Amino acid sequence: xxxxxxxxxxxxxxxxxxxxxxxxxxxxxxxxxxxxxxxxxxxxxxxxxxxxxxxxxxxxxxxxxxxxxxxxxxxxxxxxxxxxxxxxxxxxxxxxxxxxxxxxxxxxxxxxxxxxxxxxxxxxxxxxxxxxxxxxxxxxxxxxxxxxxx
Length: 150
Hints:
Blueprint: E1 2-11, H1 15-23, H2 25-31, E2 44-48, E3 58-67, E4 71-78, E5 81-91, E6 96-106, H3 111-144
Antiparallel strand pairs: 1-6, 2-3, 3-4, 4-5, 5-6
């Protein structure tokens, strides 16, 4: 049995802004989880979350591919899951399309983690990333207004 998670979101922001949220450690922490990410090929990093039965709460990753601002691929090892996560950005008429592919879910034991991660990725991309981009746009907009308009 093999499953993958494939999600796509479109943001009204240029690829460089979306890319920054994917590759800046502090930004990643705001929408994903605490980490020690460094955007360099072959760099290992960890992310941490609440432990659960059979999972110590540590995701062990390695940057496998980095093509700014178009594509990034990580290895992702957590509990019994040994998988990869790929982020692809493509410019659109109105901004950027972000496609996430998380694959490598094999066997019956991967069904529950697949369900949990699919829900988590969906919520993170559609709500958290979108709200951070919008908050950044709002702060940039208001910081360029004359003080009398604030």
